[in-house]
Design goal:
Two copies of one chain form a homodimer. Chain A is of the alpha+beta class. The first copy, chain A, has one domain: Orthogonal Bundle (Arc Repressor Mutant, subunit A). Chain A has six helices and two strands, in the order H-H-H-H-E-E-H-H. A two-stranded antiparallel ribbon of chain A has the order 1-2. In chain A, helix 2 crosses helix 3. The termini of chain A are far apart. The structure holds a DNA duplex (30 and 30 nucleotides).
Chain lengths: 112, 112
DNA sequence: TTCCCTGCGTTTTGTTTTGGAACTTATTGC
DNA sequence: GCAATAAGTTCCAAAACAAAACGCAGGGAA
């Protein structure tokens, strides 16, 4: 089965994952919960490539998890802010944060 | 940044996602929470290829989320059961289930 | 007015991962 | 011997990805 066919799965968990279950999307949400909203902020913080970031942001906007908002008209600049729908996933990330702290100690020092 | 470098990230969410944040792993956990434990059960329920399933199960065992257990010695058969560590992610899946029910209605009928 | 800078992406070029299907191994039952 | 079952493994083409360069619209400095 292809990943893209998951959005109409009978299982609500599967449908949720069809939006946020890929490699980088939940990391974007993490940054959004931390208050980040600009393309460059996401790019730097998460370490993902700009290519992938652009694609994921577009998808999250299409799905109504983020909203693309003009915050400067000249030059035109957009940022990405959480919708109510997006906010409602915050508790899931909190659980993952606690789980990571408890079960996934850092083995070697990472820079930043 | 490569996905594999995430396991030593400063952020506990990122470290958690380095284990369960890929396309299919959380679907395996969903099935485990529903009581499934055998390779064939996971394969059929999730619709993922056996190839990927085998890889993900191996990783989950390595990370201590599942335990590989001999349940038949002749012929040798193994199944996969949740550890305490694995159980502790259940609440995150529950949030995703509720979110999916609320925000991701099924658009067309999918077969099982 | 020529040049560099910032913010936000897009394109290009290889590498890695994935999907799909067939194959393997060990054992039981017919 | 022959099919069935369970748990993987192997192969190849297709898709996704990483890294880095490029594009573009304005701003500011020289």
């Amino acid at each position: 089965m292809k990943w893209s066919e998951l959005s109409d799965n009978w299982c609500p968990v599967a449908r949720t994952l069809s939006v946020v279950g890929d490699r980088w999307t939940l990391l974007i949400l993490r940054d959004a919960y931390l208050g980040k909203s600009k393309f460059e902020e996401f790019a730097e913080s998460s370490g993902m490539t700009r290519h992938i970031l652009a694609e994921r942001l577009k998808r999250l906007v299409e799905e109504g998890v983020l909203e693309r908002r003009l915050y400067s008209s000249a030059p035109k600049r957009y940022n990405y802010v959480l919708t109510d729908k997006g906010e409602e996933l915050r508790p899931a990330l909190r659980i993952m944060k606690d789980w990571g702290k408890k079960h996934m100690p850092v083995r070697r020092e990472a820079k930043a």
